[in-house]
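Hey team,

Filing this mostly as a record. A colleague (T.K.) asked me to run one chain through the structure pipeline before their review meeting, and I want the input and output archived in the tracker in case anyone asks later how it was produced. No errors, nothing strange. Just documentation.

Input sequence:
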Amino acid sequence: MLEKIYFYYTNDLHSNFSNWPQVAGYLKEQKEKITQGNESCWLVDIGDHVDRVDPIAEAFMGKANVRLMNDVGYDLATLGNNEGITMAHEDLHELYSEATFQVVCSNLHSLTDKEPEWLQRVTFMQSVGGVRIGVIGLTAPFNAFYELLDWHVSDPLETLDKYIHHVKEEADIIILLSHLGLNEDQEIARRIDDIDIIIGGHTHHLLRTGETINDTVITAAGKHCTFTGEVILTWDHSDQKLLKKEAYTNDVSHLPKDLNTVQTLRELVDEADQLLEQPITHLKESLEVKWFQHTELMQKLTDVMKHWTQADAAILNAGVLLDGLPAGDVSGKDVHRICPHPINPCVVELDGDELTEVIRACLTRDLTELKLKGFGFRGEVIGKMIFSGLDVETVVREDGNASVRSIRYQGEPLKSNKTYHIATADTFTFGRLLPEVSRSEEKRYFLPEFLRDLLTYTLRTYFSS
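Output structure:
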């Protein structure tokens, strides 16, 4: 006898709810159809469902996302880094307290005395026909951030070595929920033979029909839930083995919307507005924001970041503020609207030569006009770099780029062998935007505060009436 077992999954929604009513309708329909046919079906999320870029996620600190998942009927989820490192310890500790689905993350550990009640290392399920399925969950080990929030994420491969043999003894099929990224998923498939399916995310890769490495099928469905994923497993009860593994992704953006979900989202928008619309300060005059020009608001924000982090100097890009503010009351919603990024302040150590190279790069049009997507940045362009604690004299060349004429710190030229502590957005510690910053061996991140928390302080301190 052959038995088909179904998994439908989402990954990396990032609180982008534009397609969520279609996702909800599709997942509910598939689960109802399959279970009515007396077959097994589970709904799964692979993390980064929460992203505080959206006012709903911000106002409810992710709990509204969990409510939406409950309404759809999810069965399993693991954590992404946006759930893990963009909120205070106690907020993550309580995030899934009302979840009606299981949360599986094998490598997340609390550094306080108490683990969350919802946290499971592994879980086991059984199909209609009695096939035993073991599930392991892994999230990316960004411990430079996690440990500042009293969490620790253990090494994914070491964690798999710890649990895989136990799961193999108890299960016929092993599934890994991986918020590690495609390269890590591929490496796991090469090194570990016992995993049948890796359902992935984090790097926003879209594998339309999956990828097979050493008989392990890897799958993922991009980002923002334009696509949802489908895994179909065929178990041969006569031979007691997994006969076939299939993985697909389905474009759901054109499908009918689930009307109950549409209504719920409307209600959540209204509730979020009420929570965020409380005034936090009153501006005596309007404040302008210009991405490619110096403004008083950006200068004060950069100054605040320097003083708040106790750095020698600070560098911040004007593109982090998306819009200006009119005179009058300013609410938390206003601050979130103009600074929605999940970006934390960070201090890096650079010597004089490295700092000079960073400043030179900051002045190029290639960087200031870059339309960045990712690394926490949720704006349009990087924008002009604003400096605090540094006197940077420039000259504009014919090609429109600015070149450095002189750089002074406390009235003196930068010294090659001196170490400077430079505050900036953590965005620049990732990737190759500013190589000297990303390569710095000493980085100090400030959590759970976002740049918008410093913006609120700036508005209250320097611009309120």
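Quick notes for T.K.: The chain has two domains: 2-271, 279-463. The CA atoms of residues 139 and 191 lie 18 Å apart.
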